Amino acid sequence: MSAQRDMKEKNPWHTPVTIIFSVIGVIAIVALVTVAVLQNRPLPQKYKYGIVLDAGSSHTALYIYEWPAEKDNNTGRVEQTLSCKVDGPGISSYASAPWKAGKSLTKCLEQARQKVPVKRHSETPLYLGATAGMRLLNLEDSSASTKVFQAVEEALQKFPFSFQGARILSGQEEGAFGWVTVNYLDDRLEQNLQTRGALDLGGASTQISFVSDNFDGSDSPDNAVAFRLYGNDYNLYTHSFLCYGKDQALRKTLAQQTKSGPGTILDPCFHPGYTETKNYSVLYDSPCVSDRKPQGAPATFNHTGKGNFSRCQEVVKRIFNFTECKYSQCSFNEVFQPRLQGPFGAFSAYYFVMNFLNLTDTSIPLEVVTERLSRYCATPWNQVKEQHPGVKLKYLAEYCFSGTYIVTLLTKGYNFTSENYPNIKFIKKIKGSDAGWTLGYMLNLTNMIPAEAPDSPPLPYAGYVSIVTVIALLLFVLFIFSLRPLWPRCSKHPQII
Ligand SMILES: Nc1nc2c(ncn2[C@@H]2O[C@H](COP(=O)(O)OP(=O)(O)OP(=O)(O)O)[C@@H](O)[C@H]2O)c(=O)[nH]1
Fold this sequence. Notes:
Blueprint: H1 2-10, H2 16-40, E1 47-55, E2 60-68, E3 79-85, H3 98-104, H4 106-115, E4 125-130, H5 132-140, H6 142-157, E5 162-168, H7 171-185, E6 197-201, E7 205-211, E8 224-229, E9 232-242, H8 246-257, E10 264-267, E11 275-279, H9 280-283, E12 300-305, H10 309-317, E13 344-348, H11 349-356, H12 366-378, H13 381-387, H14 393-413, E14 424-426, E15 429-430, E16 433-434, H15 437-445, H16 461-482
Parallel strand pairs: 1-4, 4-5, 6-13, 10-12, 13-14
Antiparallel strand pairs: 1-2, 2-3, 6-7, 7-9, 8-9, 11-12, 15-16
Helix pairs in contact: 2-16, 3-6, 5-6, 7-15, 10-14, 11-14, 12-14
Protein backbone atom coordinates (compact mmCIF):
# COMPACT_ATOMS: atom_id res chain seq x y z
CA MET A 1 0.00 0.00 0.00
CA SER A 2 2.74 2.38 0.93
CA ALA A 3 4.74 1.22 -2.14
CA GLN A 4 1.79 2.09 -4.40
CA ARG A 5 1.50 5.58 -2.88
CA ASP A 6 5.23 5.95 -3.27
CA MET A 7 4.95 5.03 -6.98
CA LYS A 8 2.24 7.62 -7.59
CA GLU A 9 4.28 10.27 -5.86
CA LYS A 10 7.45 9.45 -7.80
CA ASN A 11 5.78 9.06 -11.23
CA PRO A 12 5.98 12.57 -12.75
CA TRP A 13 3.24 11.73 -15.33
CA HIS A 14 0.81 11.89 -12.54
CA THR A 15 1.83 15.30 -11.30
CA PRO A 16 -1.16 17.66 -11.39
CA VAL A 17 0.88 20.30 -13.26
CA THR A 18 1.58 17.94 -16.16
CA ILE A 19 -2.02 16.83 -16.37
CA ILE A 20 -3.24 20.43 -16.35
CA PHE A 21 -0.72 21.43 -19.07
CA SER A 22 -1.72 18.51 -21.25
CA VAL A 23 -5.44 19.26 -20.93
CA ILE A 24 -4.87 22.96 -21.64
CA GLY A 25 -2.69 22.05 -24.65
CA VAL A 26 -5.34 19.75 -26.10
CA ILE A 27 -8.10 22.32 -25.50
CA ALA A 28 -6.01 25.08 -27.07
CA ILE A 29 -5.33 23.04 -30.19
CA VAL A 30 -8.95 21.93 -30.59
CA ALA A 31 -10.04 25.56 -30.11
CA LEU A 32 -7.49 26.77 -32.71
CA VAL A 33 -8.68 24.31 -35.33
CA THR A 34 -12.35 25.01 -34.56
CA VAL A 35 -11.91 28.77 -34.83
CA ALA A 36 -9.96 28.40 -38.09
CA VAL A 37 -12.60 26.16 -39.61
CA LEU A 38 -15.54 28.26 -38.43
CA GLN A 39 -13.98 31.58 -39.30
CA ASN A 40 -13.16 30.52 -42.83
CA ARG A 41 -16.24 28.42 -43.50
CA PRO A 42 -18.04 29.66 -46.64
CA LEU A 43 -21.05 31.69 -45.51
CA PRO A 44 -24.50 30.56 -46.66
CA GLN A 45 -24.55 31.52 -50.33
CA LYS A 46 -26.36 34.70 -51.35
CA TYR A 47 -27.12 35.07 -55.03
CA LYS A 48 -27.55 37.88 -57.51
CA TYR A 49 -29.72 37.55 -60.59
CA GLY A 50 -29.97 38.75 -64.17
CA ILE A 51 -32.86 38.24 -66.62
CA VAL A 52 -32.60 38.17 -70.43
CA LEU A 53 -35.47 37.85 -72.88
CA ASP A 54 -34.50 36.37 -76.24
CA ALA A 55 -37.10 37.78 -78.62
CA GLY A 56 -36.48 35.52 -81.62
CA SER A 57 -38.29 35.28 -84.93
CA SER A 58 -40.19 32.11 -84.02
CA HIS A 59 -40.72 32.66 -80.29
CA THR A 60 -39.52 34.50 -77.19
CA ALA A 61 -37.76 32.81 -74.27
CA LEU A 62 -36.87 34.20 -70.85
CA TYR A 63 -33.72 33.14 -69.03
CA ILE A 64 -32.77 33.85 -65.42
CA TYR A 65 -29.12 33.64 -64.46
CA GLU A 66 -27.74 33.56 -60.93
CA TRP A 67 -24.28 33.94 -59.43
CA PRO A 68 -22.84 34.16 -55.91
CA ALA A 69 -23.29 37.71 -54.65
CA GLU A 70 -19.67 38.26 -53.53
CA LYS A 71 -18.01 36.82 -56.64
CA ASP A 72 -19.26 38.83 -59.58
CA ASN A 73 -16.27 38.30 -61.80
CA ASN A 74 -15.30 34.71 -61.14
CA THR A 75 -15.58 32.47 -64.13
CA GLY A 76 -17.94 29.55 -64.48
CA ARG A 77 -20.07 30.81 -61.61
CA VAL A 78 -22.95 32.29 -63.57
CA GLU A 79 -25.58 29.65 -64.14
CA GLN A 80 -29.00 29.50 -65.70
CA THR A 81 -31.55 28.90 -63.00
CA LEU A 82 -34.79 29.14 -64.99
CA SER A 83 -35.93 29.24 -68.60
CA CYS A 84 -39.46 30.03 -69.69
CA LYS A 85 -40.80 29.69 -73.23
CA VAL A 86 -43.29 32.45 -74.00
CA ASP A 87 -46.54 31.12 -75.49
CA GLY A 88 -47.28 32.19 -79.04
CA PRO A 89 -45.07 33.45 -81.88
CA GLY A 90 -42.14 35.87 -81.81
CA ILE A 91 -42.83 39.53 -81.05
CA SER A 92 -42.33 40.52 -84.72
CA SER A 93 -45.53 38.61 -85.53
CA TYR A 94 -47.55 41.13 -83.52
CA ALA A 95 -46.92 44.05 -85.90
CA SER A 96 -50.66 44.53 -86.46
CA ALA A 97 -51.53 44.35 -82.72
CA PRO A 98 -48.40 45.45 -80.81
CA TRP A 99 -50.06 45.40 -77.36
CA LYS A 100 -50.37 41.63 -77.71
CA ALA A 101 -46.58 41.41 -77.94
CA GLY A 102 -46.29 43.00 -74.48
CA LYS A 103 -49.08 40.92 -73.02
CA SER A 104 -47.54 37.68 -74.32
CA LEU A 105 -44.50 38.19 -72.07
CA THR A 106 -46.29 38.61 -68.75
CA LYS A 107 -46.66 34.90 -67.86
CA CYS A 108 -42.92 34.27 -67.99
CA LEU A 109 -42.20 37.53 -66.13
CA GLU A 110 -44.57 36.42 -63.37
CA GLN A 111 -42.50 33.24 -63.09
CA ALA A 112 -39.38 35.40 -62.84
CA ARG A 113 -41.00 37.48 -60.10
CA GLN A 114 -41.60 34.28 -58.12
CA LYS A 115 -38.12 32.91 -58.76
CA VAL A 116 -36.02 35.94 -57.84
CA PRO A 117 -36.10 36.72 -54.08
CA VAL A 118 -38.16 39.86 -53.39
CA LYS A 119 -35.23 41.73 -51.84
CA ARG A 120 -33.25 41.26 -55.08
CA HIS A 121 -36.03 42.41 -57.45
CA SER A 122 -35.07 46.07 -57.76
CA GLU A 123 -31.38 45.37 -58.39
CA THR A 124 -31.95 42.54 -60.92
CA PRO A 125 -31.21 43.78 -64.44
CA LEU A 126 -33.76 42.84 -67.10
CA TYR A 127 -32.77 42.96 -70.78
CA LEU A 128 -34.70 42.21 -73.94
CA GLY A 129 -32.74 41.49 -77.10
CA ALA A 130 -34.55 40.94 -80.37
CA THR A 131 -32.96 39.04 -83.23
CA ALA A 132 -33.71 38.35 -86.87
CA GLY A 133 -37.51 38.53 -86.75
CA MET A 134 -37.37 42.15 -85.57
CA ARG A 135 -34.46 42.88 -87.93
CA LEU A 136 -36.73 41.86 -90.79
CA LEU A 137 -39.74 43.77 -89.45
CA ASN A 138 -37.54 46.84 -89.01
CA LEU A 139 -36.42 46.56 -92.66
CA GLU A 140 -39.95 46.07 -93.84
CA ASP A 141 -41.80 48.56 -91.63
CA SER A 142 -39.71 50.47 -89.11
CA SER A 143 -42.69 52.24 -87.52
CA ALA A 144 -44.37 48.88 -86.83
CA SER A 145 -41.13 47.71 -85.24
CA THR A 146 -41.01 50.85 -83.04
CA LYS A 147 -44.60 50.24 -81.90
CA VAL A 148 -43.84 46.63 -80.99
CA PHE A 149 -40.88 47.81 -78.90
CA GLN A 150 -43.01 50.48 -77.19
CA ALA A 151 -45.61 47.86 -76.22
CA VAL A 152 -42.95 45.46 -75.01
CA GLU A 153 -41.16 48.13 -72.95
CA GLU A 154 -44.42 49.22 -71.36
CA ALA A 155 -45.14 45.65 -70.31
CA LEU A 156 -41.64 45.06 -68.94
CA GLN A 157 -41.58 48.30 -66.93
CA LYS A 158 -44.58 47.06 -64.93
CA PHE A 159 -42.37 44.45 -63.26
CA PRO A 160 -40.22 45.29 -60.25
CA PHE A 161 -36.92 44.50 -61.97
CA SER A 162 -34.30 46.99 -63.14
CA PHE A 163 -35.34 47.19 -66.81
CA GLN A 164 -32.33 48.02 -68.98
CA GLY A 165 -34.07 48.44 -72.32
CA ALA A 166 -35.22 46.46 -75.34
CA ARG A 167 -33.27 46.59 -78.59
CA ILE A 168 -32.42 44.73 -81.77
CA LEU A 169 -29.10 42.92 -81.64
CA SER A 170 -26.99 43.14 -84.77
CA GLY A 171 -26.19 39.83 -86.44
CA GLN A 172 -22.57 40.37 -85.41
CA GLU A 173 -23.54 40.73 -81.74
CA GLU A 174 -25.75 37.65 -81.92
CA GLY A 175 -22.89 35.58 -83.34
CA ALA A 176 -20.23 36.96 -81.00
CA PHE A 177 -22.28 36.59 -77.79
CA GLY A 178 -23.21 33.02 -78.77
CA TRP A 179 -19.48 32.30 -79.03
CA VAL A 180 -18.83 33.95 -75.62
CA THR A 181 -21.59 31.85 -74.00
CA VAL A 182 -20.26 28.55 -75.31
CA ASN A 183 -16.67 29.27 -74.35
CA TYR A 184 -17.55 30.75 -70.94
CA LEU A 185 -19.65 27.71 -70.00
CA ASP A 186 -16.89 25.39 -71.24
CA ASP A 187 -14.38 27.29 -69.03
CA ARG A 188 -12.21 27.82 -72.10
CA LEU A 189 -11.78 31.57 -71.64
CA GLU A 190 -10.37 31.77 -68.14
CA GLN A 191 -8.20 28.72 -68.66
CA ASN A 192 -6.97 30.05 -72.00
CA LEU A 193 -7.84 26.81 -73.79
CA GLN A 194 -8.45 26.48 -77.53
CA THR A 195 -11.86 28.04 -78.12
CA ARG A 196 -14.91 26.36 -79.64
CA GLY A 197 -16.56 27.93 -82.67
CA ALA A 198 -20.28 28.63 -82.44
CA LEU A 199 -22.87 27.62 -85.06
CA ASP A 200 -26.33 28.98 -84.34
CA LEU A 201 -29.32 28.17 -86.55
CA GLY A 202 -32.35 30.33 -85.76
CA GLY A 203 -35.65 30.67 -87.55
CA ALA A 204 -34.73 33.74 -89.60
CA SER A 205 -30.93 34.02 -89.43
CA THR A 206 -27.94 31.79 -88.89
CA GLN A 207 -24.56 32.66 -87.37
CA ILE A 208 -21.06 31.22 -87.63
CA SER A 209 -18.33 32.47 -85.26
CA PHE A 210 -14.85 31.10 -84.65
CA VAL A 211 -11.22 32.01 -84.07
CA SER A 212 -8.89 31.15 -86.93
CA ASP A 213 -5.12 31.66 -87.12
CA ASN A 214 -5.43 33.06 -90.63
CA PHE A 215 -7.94 35.74 -89.64
CA ASP A 216 -6.92 39.05 -88.11
CA GLY A 217 -9.82 41.10 -89.44
CA SER A 218 -7.84 42.82 -92.20
CA ASP A 219 -9.50 40.82 -95.03
CA SER A 220 -12.99 41.63 -93.93
CA PRO A 221 -13.31 44.09 -91.02
CA ASP A 222 -17.11 43.69 -90.94
CA ASN A 223 -16.66 40.12 -89.80
CA ALA A 224 -14.18 40.90 -87.03
CA VAL A 225 -14.89 41.25 -83.33
CA ALA A 226 -11.96 41.79 -80.97
CA PHE A 227 -12.25 40.70 -77.35
CA ARG A 228 -9.84 40.88 -74.44
CA LEU A 229 -11.04 38.38 -71.82
CA TYR A 230 -9.15 37.22 -68.71
CA GLY A 231 -5.96 38.72 -70.08
CA ASN A 232 -6.18 37.05 -73.51
CA ASP A 233 -6.87 38.65 -76.89
CA TYR A 234 -9.27 37.04 -79.34
CA ASN A 235 -9.83 38.04 -82.98
CA LEU A 236 -13.18 36.48 -83.61
CA TYR A 237 -14.54 35.88 -87.09
CA THR A 238 -18.34 36.10 -87.11
CA HIS A 239 -21.03 36.33 -89.73
CA SER A 240 -24.80 36.32 -89.54
CA PHE A 241 -26.77 35.34 -92.66
CA LEU A 242 -30.13 37.08 -92.54
CA CYS A 243 -32.85 35.00 -94.25
CA TYR A 244 -30.83 31.79 -93.80
CA GLY A 245 -32.45 30.67 -90.55
CA LYS A 246 -34.37 27.46 -91.07
CA ASP A 247 -37.85 29.02 -91.50
CA GLN A 248 -36.74 31.69 -93.96
CA ALA A 249 -34.55 29.18 -95.82
CA LEU A 250 -37.65 27.02 -96.24
CA ARG A 251 -39.51 30.01 -97.69
CA LYS A 252 -36.60 30.67 -100.05
CA THR A 253 -36.54 27.03 -101.12
CA LEU A 254 -40.29 27.06 -101.76
CA ALA A 255 -39.95 30.38 -103.58
CA GLN A 256 -37.35 28.74 -105.86
CA GLN A 257 -39.99 26.21 -106.80
CA THR A 258 -42.86 28.64 -107.23
CA LYS A 259 -41.18 31.24 -109.41
CA SER A 260 -43.80 30.81 -112.11
CA GLY A 261 -46.71 30.61 -109.66
CA PRO A 262 -47.88 27.04 -110.33
CA GLY A 263 -51.04 25.58 -108.81
CA THR A 264 -49.13 22.57 -107.48
CA ILE A 265 -45.53 22.14 -106.27
CA LEU A 266 -44.08 18.65 -106.14
CA ASP A 267 -41.58 19.26 -103.34
CA PRO A 268 -38.70 16.76 -102.87
CA CYS A 269 -38.11 18.17 -99.35
CA PHE A 270 -41.44 16.90 -97.97
CA HIS A 271 -42.53 13.30 -97.44
CA PRO A 272 -44.44 11.42 -100.14
CA GLY A 273 -48.14 11.59 -99.31
CA TYR A 274 -47.80 15.04 -97.65
CA THR A 275 -50.21 17.47 -99.20
CA GLU A 276 -51.43 20.87 -98.01
CA THR A 277 -53.10 23.84 -99.62
CA LYS A 278 -51.04 26.97 -98.90
CA ASN A 279 -51.46 30.68 -99.60
CA TYR A 280 -49.08 32.44 -101.94
CA SER A 281 -49.55 35.67 -99.96
CA VAL A 282 -48.44 33.95 -96.72
CA LEU A 283 -45.43 32.29 -98.38
CA TYR A 284 -44.21 35.58 -99.84
CA ASP A 285 -44.97 37.67 -96.76
CA SER A 286 -41.32 38.20 -95.81
CA PRO A 287 -38.59 40.54 -97.08
CA CYS A 288 -36.47 37.42 -97.66
CA VAL A 289 -38.66 36.41 -100.61
CA SER A 290 -41.14 39.23 -101.26
CA ASP A 291 -39.27 40.52 -104.32
CA ARG A 292 -39.71 37.15 -106.00
CA LYS A 293 -43.46 36.92 -105.72
CA PRO A 294 -44.80 35.50 -108.98
CA GLN A 295 -47.06 37.81 -110.94
CA GLY A 296 -50.55 36.58 -111.70
CA ALA A 297 -50.24 33.51 -109.49
CA PRO A 298 -53.42 31.95 -108.06
CA ALA A 299 -54.25 32.68 -104.40
CA THR A 300 -53.26 29.23 -103.27
CA PHE A 301 -51.05 26.36 -104.32
CA ASN A 302 -51.03 22.70 -103.54
CA HIS A 303 -47.88 21.72 -101.66
CA THR A 304 -47.23 18.04 -102.31
CA GLY A 305 -44.29 16.02 -100.99
CA LYS A 306 -42.08 13.81 -103.19
CA GLY A 307 -39.53 12.76 -100.52
CA ASN A 308 -36.22 12.76 -102.38
CA PHE A 309 -33.12 13.87 -100.46
CA SER A 310 -30.75 14.41 -103.39
CA ARG A 311 -33.34 16.39 -105.38
CA CYS A 312 -34.13 18.35 -102.22
CA GLN A 313 -30.44 19.15 -101.83
CA GLU A 314 -30.35 20.39 -105.43
CA VAL A 315 -33.21 22.81 -104.73
CA VAL A 316 -31.70 23.91 -101.41
CA LYS A 317 -28.32 24.59 -103.06
CA ARG A 318 -30.03 27.05 -105.37
CA ILE A 319 -30.74 29.45 -102.51
CA PHE A 320 -26.97 29.97 -102.06
CA ASN A 321 -24.72 31.91 -104.38
CA PHE A 322 -21.45 29.99 -104.63
CA THR A 323 -20.12 31.56 -107.79
CA GLU A 324 -18.92 35.01 -106.77
CA CYS A 325 -16.22 35.74 -104.21
CA LYS A 326 -13.98 38.81 -104.15
CA TYR A 327 -11.86 37.45 -101.28
CA SER A 328 -9.32 34.65 -101.09
CA GLN A 329 -12.12 32.37 -99.88
CA CYS A 330 -15.82 32.64 -99.19
CA SER A 331 -18.61 30.66 -97.61
CA PHE A 332 -21.47 31.81 -99.86
CA ASN A 333 -23.20 34.98 -101.08
CA GLU A 334 -19.77 36.64 -101.48
CA VAL A 335 -19.11 36.51 -97.76
CA PHE A 336 -15.52 36.04 -96.66
CA GLN A 337 -14.78 33.06 -94.44
CA PRO A 338 -11.34 32.09 -93.14
CA ARG A 339 -10.18 28.47 -92.90
CA LEU A 340 -12.30 26.51 -90.43
CA GLN A 341 -10.37 25.77 -87.26
CA GLY A 342 -10.90 23.92 -84.00
CA PRO A 343 -13.95 22.33 -82.44
CA PHE A 344 -17.45 23.75 -83.03
CA GLY A 345 -20.65 23.73 -81.00
CA ALA A 346 -23.87 23.74 -83.08
CA PHE A 347 -27.00 24.75 -81.20
CA SER A 348 -30.62 26.00 -81.48
CA ALA A 349 -32.28 24.43 -84.54
CA TYR A 350 -29.08 22.50 -85.41
CA TYR A 351 -29.66 20.57 -82.20
CA PHE A 352 -33.49 20.28 -82.41
CA VAL A 353 -33.32 18.83 -85.91
CA MET A 354 -30.28 16.57 -85.61
CA ASN A 355 -31.54 15.28 -82.26
CA PHE A 356 -34.91 14.37 -83.78
CA LEU A 357 -33.14 12.61 -86.68
CA ASN A 358 -30.84 10.74 -84.27
CA LEU A 359 -27.85 12.31 -85.98
CA THR A 360 -26.18 14.26 -83.17
CA ASP A 361 -23.29 11.76 -83.12
CA THR A 362 -20.81 13.34 -85.53
CA SER A 363 -18.64 10.25 -85.61
CA ILE A 364 -21.32 8.95 -88.00
CA PRO A 365 -19.67 9.52 -91.42
CA LEU A 366 -21.27 12.16 -93.63
CA GLU A 367 -22.14 9.52 -96.27
CA VAL A 368 -24.11 7.61 -93.64
CA VAL A 369 -25.83 10.85 -92.55
CA THR A 370 -26.84 11.37 -96.18
CA GLU A 371 -28.09 7.76 -96.53
CA ARG A 372 -30.18 8.06 -93.38
CA LEU A 373 -31.65 11.36 -94.50
CA SER A 374 -32.48 9.85 -97.91
CA ARG A 375 -34.34 7.02 -96.20
CA TYR A 376 -36.10 9.39 -93.82
CA CYS A 377 -37.22 11.78 -96.57
CA ALA A 378 -38.54 8.86 -98.64
CA THR A 379 -40.69 7.59 -95.73
CA PRO A 380 -44.39 8.10 -96.46
CA TRP A 381 -45.98 10.94 -94.48
CA ASN A 382 -48.61 8.67 -92.89
CA GLN A 383 -45.90 6.36 -91.59
CA VAL A 384 -43.91 9.30 -90.19
CA LYS A 385 -46.99 10.55 -88.34
CA GLU A 386 -47.67 7.08 -86.95
CA GLN A 387 -44.09 6.73 -85.74
CA HIS A 388 -44.06 10.10 -83.96
CA PRO A 389 -47.53 10.62 -82.52
CA GLY A 390 -46.46 13.21 -79.91
CA VAL A 391 -44.55 15.55 -82.24
CA LYS A 392 -46.01 18.87 -83.40
CA LEU A 393 -47.13 18.33 -87.03
CA LYS A 394 -45.50 21.55 -88.25
CA TYR A 395 -42.10 20.46 -86.92
CA LEU A 396 -42.62 16.88 -88.10
CA ALA A 397 -43.45 17.86 -91.67
CA GLU A 398 -40.29 19.95 -91.93
CA TYR A 399 -37.55 17.65 -90.53
CA CYS A 400 -36.70 16.24 -93.99
CA PHE A 401 -36.19 19.77 -95.33
CA SER A 402 -34.43 20.94 -92.15
CA GLY A 403 -32.00 17.98 -92.06
CA THR A 404 -31.19 18.48 -95.74
CA TYR A 405 -30.73 22.22 -95.19
CA ILE A 406 -28.38 21.67 -92.23
CA VAL A 407 -26.18 19.19 -94.10
CA THR A 408 -26.11 21.49 -97.15
CA LEU A 409 -25.36 24.63 -95.12
CA LEU A 410 -22.53 22.92 -93.22
CA THR A 411 -20.87 21.15 -96.14
CA LYS A 412 -21.59 23.33 -99.18
CA GLY A 413 -22.07 26.63 -97.33
CA TYR A 414 -19.36 26.59 -94.66
CA ASN A 415 -17.17 23.95 -96.32
CA PHE A 416 -17.12 21.31 -93.58
CA THR A 417 -15.72 18.08 -94.99
CA SER A 418 -15.68 14.41 -93.90
CA GLU A 419 -12.43 15.25 -92.04
CA ASN A 420 -13.66 18.14 -89.91
CA TYR A 421 -17.37 17.27 -89.63
CA PRO A 422 -16.55 15.21 -86.48
CA ASN A 423 -15.22 18.46 -84.92
CA ILE A 424 -18.84 19.63 -84.65
CA LYS A 425 -20.74 18.85 -81.49
CA PHE A 426 -24.52 19.32 -81.55
CA ILE A 427 -25.45 20.81 -78.20
CA LYS A 428 -28.51 22.13 -76.43
CA LYS A 429 -27.13 22.92 -72.99
CA ILE A 430 -23.71 23.19 -71.38
CA LYS A 431 -23.59 22.51 -67.64
CA GLY A 432 -27.31 23.20 -67.31
CA SER A 433 -27.34 26.50 -69.25
CA ASP A 434 -28.78 26.79 -72.76
CA ALA A 435 -26.32 27.50 -75.54
CA GLY A 436 -27.30 30.79 -77.21
CA TRP A 437 -26.39 34.48 -77.22
CA THR A 438 -28.28 35.49 -74.03
CA LEU A 439 -25.71 34.55 -71.39
CA GLY A 440 -22.83 36.16 -73.32
CA TYR A 441 -24.94 39.31 -73.75
CA MET A 442 -25.64 39.57 -70.03
CA LEU A 443 -22.02 38.81 -69.05
CA ASN A 444 -20.93 41.61 -71.35
CA LEU A 445 -23.47 44.19 -70.17
CA THR A 446 -22.82 43.47 -66.51
CA ASN A 447 -19.02 43.50 -67.06
CA MET A 448 -18.84 40.07 -65.56
CA ILE A 449 -15.94 38.87 -67.70
CA PRO A 450 -12.90 40.95 -66.76
CA ALA A 451 -10.44 42.02 -69.43
CA GLU A 452 -7.56 40.96 -67.17
CA ALA A 453 -7.22 37.69 -65.25
CA PRO A 454 -8.51 38.19 -61.68
CA ASP A 455 -6.15 37.50 -58.75
CA SER A 456 -7.02 34.25 -57.09
CA PRO A 457 -6.61 33.62 -53.30
CA PRO A 458 -3.32 31.85 -52.51
CA LEU A 459 -5.14 28.85 -51.07
CA PRO A 460 -8.57 27.41 -51.55
CA TYR A 461 -10.71 26.98 -48.40
CA ALA A 462 -10.14 23.20 -48.12
CA GLY A 463 -6.38 23.67 -48.48
CA TYR A 464 -6.39 26.32 -45.74
CA VAL A 465 -8.28 24.12 -43.28
CA SER A 466 -6.06 21.11 -44.02
CA ILE A 467 -2.89 23.13 -43.40
CA VAL A 468 -4.18 24.56 -40.10
CA THR A 469 -5.20 21.07 -38.95
CA VAL A 470 -1.86 19.49 -39.87
CA ILE A 471 0.13 22.28 -38.16
CA ALA A 472 -2.03 22.01 -35.03
CA LEU A 473 -1.55 18.25 -34.86
CA LEU A 474 2.18 18.71 -35.37
CA LEU A 475 2.31 21.23 -32.51
CA PHE A 476 0.42 18.84 -30.32
CA VAL A 477 2.81 15.98 -31.07
CA LEU A 478 5.79 18.30 -30.42
CA PHE A 479 4.22 19.38 -27.16
CA ILE A 480 3.79 15.77 -26.05
CA PHE A 481 7.38 15.01 -27.04
CA SER A 482 8.59 18.05 -25.14
CA LEU A 483 7.18 16.42 -22.02
CA ARG A 484 9.26 13.33 -22.69
CA PRO A 485 11.51 13.67 -19.63
CA LEU A 486 8.39 13.54 -17.52
CA TRP A 487 7.03 10.40 -19.26
CA PRO A 488 6.72 7.24 -17.08
CA ARG A 489 9.32 4.71 -18.06
CA CYS A 490 7.91 1.78 -19.88
CA SER A 491 8.56 -1.59 -18.31
CA LYS A 492 6.60 -4.68 -17.59
CA HIS A 493 6.97 -4.20 -13.86
CA PRO A 494 6.38 -0.79 -12.39
CA GLN A 495 9.65 0.56 -11.20
CA ILE A 496 9.61 1.46 -7.58
CA ILE A 497 12.19 3.96 -6.57
N1 LIG B 1 -38.08 20.73 -83.64
C1 LIG B 1 -38.08 21.79 -82.84
N2 LIG B 1 -37.87 22.99 -83.38
C2 LIG B 1 -37.88 24.04 -82.58
C3 LIG B 1 -38.05 23.94 -81.18
N3 LIG B 1 -37.98 25.17 -80.65
C4 LIG B 1 -37.77 26.01 -81.68
N4 LIG B 1 -37.73 25.32 -82.84
C5 LIG B 1 -37.53 25.84 -84.19
O1 LIG B 1 -36.13 26.01 -84.37
C6 LIG B 1 -35.87 27.18 -85.12
C7 LIG B 1 -34.92 28.05 -84.33
O2 LIG B 1 -35.53 28.44 -83.14
P1 LIG B 1 -34.82 29.52 -82.23
O3 LIG B 1 -33.44 29.13 -81.98
O4 LIG B 1 -35.72 29.80 -81.10
O5 LIG B 1 -34.75 30.74 -83.26
P2 LIG B 1 -35.32 32.19 -83.14
O6 LIG B 1 -34.65 32.85 -81.98
O7 LIG B 1 -36.79 32.19 -83.13
O8 LIG B 1 -34.83 32.78 -84.51
P3 LIG B 1 -33.82 33.96 -84.85
O9 LIG B 1 -34.55 35.22 -84.56
O10 LIG B 1 -33.50 33.76 -86.27
O11 LIG B 1 -32.62 33.80 -83.97
C8 LIG B 1 -37.21 27.81 -85.42
O12 LIG B 1 -37.57 27.37 -86.71
C9 LIG B 1 -38.14 27.20 -84.40
O13 LIG B 1 -39.45 27.07 -84.91
C10 LIG B 1 -38.24 22.65 -80.62
O14 LIG B 1 -38.38 22.47 -79.42
N5 LIG B 1 -38.24 21.60 -81.51
